[in-house]
Amino acid sequence: MAKAKIGLALGGGAARGWAHIGVLKALAEAGIKPDIIAGTSIGAVVGACHAAGHLDELEDFARELTRRRIFGYLDFNFAGTALINGQKLCDRLERQLGDQHIEELVPRFTAVATELGSGHEIWLSRGRLADAVRASYALPGIFRPVKINGRWLIDGALVNPVPVSVCRAFGARIVVAVTLSSDSVNRGSVIHDQEVLAELSVPPEEAKLPGKNGRAAIHLLHRQIFGKSDGAPGISAVMMDAINITQDRIARSRLAGDPPDVTISPKVGGIGLFDFHRAGEAMEQGAKAAERQIDELRALVGGLVA
Hints:
By secondary structure, the chain is of the alpha/beta class. It is 41% helix and 12% strand.
């Protein structure tokens, strides 16, 4: 198997991306090791930790997350270019990846980001690993853009949600794509002649931000981020879902033009984009999806080796 270059394209999908951990572990158990990993957004986070030898630590971190702990990592930034400053997550990433550089990694790794203004697709294949990962997951409006080599970079899912093309460019003969939105079957359809029956949501008086009650302010902020009990989405849910819809349509178009050899599609459509506390469920679905494709992948690899 070592003679056949295998590329693994890990797509974006926010909290659903914990499924990538299950995929990587299932492939490793089957003796299939990628030579090239390209990741976008959460795919870059998981791919980087795997390439750097820290996948087990990332899994432990993900499994320990609760809603309260997630909220604790969100250092809000009301005066800058994004809702979340991201320094707490950055510090955690720095502790995990240290000062490792991408060009030192085996397997070869590349993170995909988007340049603000120009919209260029940027392949980060050299330099500090932690900086490349931060740029790749910098969701616009939620995390601050990251400046690398004079370019302001944001989430790569805006231009290349599942980076199959990156794997091929770096010499992969077999490309495995992990997509996280394939079971969102209704996305992209058109609904005709829908009657307009708008529901205006008026916040109750007690939901207004109090002047001095810090605990109530925290609770209100929590609802704005995670959503309200009546099902109304919070700020982050609206922004992340809008980005997800966009990247899903881009992914369909790009994968149609440059299809992978094998597609792994974890059934994670029921996991919300901000449900990072559901890591165990996502990983289980990732492992199951990978196991279903093992025989096909082995046949492809065996054919190249022969």
